[in-house]
Specification:
The protein is mainly α. Helix content is about 45%, strand content about 0%. The chain contains one helix and no strands. It is rod-shaped, with a radius of gyration of 33 Å.
Length: about 60
């Protein structure tokens, strides 16, 4: 087997970690963009019942 030098094994580990970080950053950006359902639209609907006007008494 050929010797890759003193840093051959750690270079592979660093490369895997860099790829892992890039994948996490892209996943967070995709989630914020709404590709995974990250955005939720909320509609605030205020429904009020009209109050009845006070009834006047008939004068005798």
């Amino acid at each position: 087997m050929a010797d890759n030098g003193s840093g051959g094994g750690s270079t592979g580990v660093v490369a895997v970690l860099v790829i892992f970080v890039i994948v996490i950053v892209l996943a967070v950006l995709a989630w914020r963009a709404g590709l995974f359902g990250g955005k939720r639209t909320q509609i605030n609907v205020n429904v009020t019942v009209p109050q009845a006007s006070p009834q006047r008494q008939a004068s005798p």
